[in-house]
Amino acid sequence: MRHASRHLAAFLLCSTALAVPAAAQDASDITYLGQIVIGYAEDGTPIFAGENATHLGSDDLRGAASTTDLDGLLRQQTSVFTQKDPGNPGVSVNIRGFEGSGRVAMSVDGVPQTYRLTGHAAQGYVFVDENLLAGVDVTRGPVTALGGSGFAGSADFRTLEAGDVLKDGAMQGGMVRLEQTDNGHATSGMAAAALQAGRFDMLFAASRHTGDDYADGAGATVANTYQDISSQLFKLGYDLSDSTRISFSLMHYESDFFATGYGQSLTNDIAKLGLRYTPGSALIDLRANVYTGKTETDWVSGTGAYVGRTLSTRTTGFDVTNTSDIALGAWTLTSANGIEASQDRLGGTAGGVNPTTGTAKRAALFSENVFANGPWEVTAGLRANYYSLKGTASLGDIDISDQSLDPKLTVAYQLTDWFQPYVTLSKGMRAPTLQETMLGGSHPGGGVGMVANPNLEPETEQGYEIGFNLNREGVFATGDRLTGRVNYYHMDVENYVVARFTTNSWGQTGYAFANLPGTSRTEGVEVELIYEHPGFDLGLSYTHNSAHLPSQMPGLGAGQYLPDDTLSLRLSRDLLEERLTLGAQYSYVSGGLFTDTYTTTAYQKDDSYELVDLFASYALTDDAVLYAKVTNVFDTVYVPWLSASATENGQGRTLHIGTSLRF
C-alpha cells in the first residue's frame, strides 16, 4: 500500500517545526551574478553566471546533511539522473534524458572515463569511490571547452587534494570518516594523511566499503546488492618556482559485485601528470596534463557461458589550456583556449556482443570567450572536433572518421541588481563508439543475432535555452536571500543512434546500432533555487522533461527516458550557535515514458514514488562532527526510475550513524 499523502504531510509537519524563527545568521557574501568569476573548472576555465552548471562540494557529497549516496545525490539535481543497478557500484550520469555511449562526457579529475559494456545495463559507467571525492561538476548542454565530447553535458568527479585534508595553516594532518548502517549492515571508512613542506605537498587516502544485501521497504532482501569496494589515492605536488607547479596523481579502485547475471571483479586505475604555469601576466594561466587509465572487468562466476570473459578499455591522452584576461576598451574578455586529444584501446577475451579489439581516437581545438561590459555578459565558444574508429568486425575492417565545428553563444543581461535573463544557442556532436559500431555475435543462448554497422554516423544536436538567474536579498525578511536559476531548454538531435533490426552494408541482417532519419527532440523546464533565512535554509530542485526521442532498446543498453517530473526539497536549521543541524529531505519521482526489455515501443508508465529522509549532526569541534540520518523514513516500496530491473526494489528504511574527524 502506498502512503504518498502521509509522506508529504509528515514532511510538511517537520518543515513547520524546523522553520520556527531562530537567531540571525550572516548571509553569504558570494556574488553569483554579473561579471564576477565564481570559480574555476578543472581545466582553469572560469565559471560565470551564464553557465548552466551545478558544482557539488564536499559538504554536498559527505557533509552531515547529505542523506544519500552518490547516485541519489545526482538524482536530486535538476535534469540529472542516473542508471541504477543495485548490484553495480558504477555511476552512469543521465542529463536531460540522454546517457550512455558518451552522450554525457564523464571524467575523473578531467581524465575521460570511456569503459563501455553493451548488455542489460547502461552503456558507460564511472567507477570512483565517493569517499575519495571532493566534488562533482555537472554541466547541462554542449560544452565548448575541455571535456566537451558529449552534446548532452558533462560530469567531472574531482578527488581529494591535500588542502581538503589539512587544517588552515597546518603543515601536516589527517582525516578519518566512518559510517555504519543497519540495513545491510554496511560499513564505510576512509583515512587520509596530508603533508605540506615548503614547495612540496603530498596526500594519501584509502577507503573501504563492505556490506550485505539490503532489504526493501517490505523487508524482503534484494539479492546481490552487497558492497565490496576498496580504493587508494596518492597525490604529489611541487612548486618548481612561484609561477610553475607540477603535480602527479594515482588512483586505484577495485570492486567485486554481481550484475548482468555474473559475478564480476573490476579495477579502475588512473595516472595523471599535470603542469601549471602562472607567471603573473593576465595573458597566461597555462595548464597541461597527460594521463592514462585502464578499466578492466573479469567475469568470475555465474551459470552462463561467459564465465572467464574479460573486457578492458585503456585511455591515454593529453590536454593543454590557457586562460587570459584582456581589456578591450569598455569591454573585458576572459578567454580560455586549448587542445585535447585521447585514444581508447579495447582488450579482453570472449567479448560476445562486445568487441575486444579496436581503437578510437578523439581530438579537439576549443576556444571559449566571455565578454563583459556593464550589465552585458556574452559568452562565445567554438569547438572543432575530430574522431576516428578502427577495428575488425565479423565480415571486414571498420575505418570511419568525421569532424564537426560546434559553436555556442550565451547572451546575458543584468536587468536589475538581482535579476539576470539570458539565452543560449548551441550545437554539439557525439561520435559513435567502438561498441556501437562493432556490435556482433549473438545473445547468450542464441536466437538473436547482432551485427556491426560500418557506416554509423555521429549524432548532431542543435538547441537553445532561455532563462534567468536570481540573487536577491531581503525577499521576505531582513538578512534572507534567494538565489538560483529557472530556465527552459529545447534540444533537436539528428542521426540519433538506437538499436534496430536492420540489414547492414555487408548484407548481414540482425540487430545493429543505426542512425534514425528525422529529428529527435527533448525539451523541459529546470528550476534550481536556494532560500537562506536567518532561521533556516531551503533548497528546491524541480525538473519537467518532455521527451520526443525514439526508444533505446533495453537489452542492447538500457532505457534512458527521464521521469516526466522530479522534485527535491530540502530544509535545514542550525541551532546551538550553529553546532547542531536538523533537517529533512523530500523527493518526488513521477512516472513517464518507459520501454520494456527487447521492445522498441515506449509507453506511459505512471508508477510514481515519494521518499522522505531526516538528518541531524552535531559539531563537537570545528573539526569533529557526529551525524545520524534516516533514509526512506516510511519504508516505501519502490523501484528506482531507470533501474536495471523492474524486480529490484530500492532500499527500505535505513539508519546511518557516522563521524568525520580532521586532526
| Strand fraction | over 45%
Q: In which range does the helix fraction lie?
A: under 10%
Cα end-to-end separation: 48 Å
The averaged pLDDT comes out at: 89
Q: What is the radius of gyration?
A: 24 Å
The tally of domains stands at: 1
Overall shape: globular
Q: Count all strands and give the number.
A: 33
CATH topology: Maltoporin, Chain A
**Low-confidence regions:** 1-39
What's the architecture in CATH terms?
A: Beta Barrel
What CATH first level would be assigned? Mainly Beta
CATH superfamily: TonB-dependent receptor, beta-barrel domain
Helical stretch tally: 5
Give the class from helix and strand content and strand pairing: mainly beta
Main sheet characteristics: 22 strands, antiparallel, barrel
Question: Characteristics of this structure?
Answer:
single chain, 663 residues, mainly beta, Maltoporin, Chain A, 22-stranded antiparallel barrel, five-stranded mixed β-sheet, 5 helices, 33 strands, 5% helix, globular, transport, Plug_dom_sf, signal, transmembrane
Give a description of the structure:
The protein is mainly beta and 663 residues long. The protein has one domain: Beta Barrel (Maltoporin, Chain A). The chain contains five helices and 33 strands. The chain has a 22-stranded antiparallel β-barrel. It has a five-stranded mixed β-sheet with strand order 1-6-7-4-5. Strands 2-3 form a two-stranded antiparallel ribbon. It is globular and about 70 Å long.
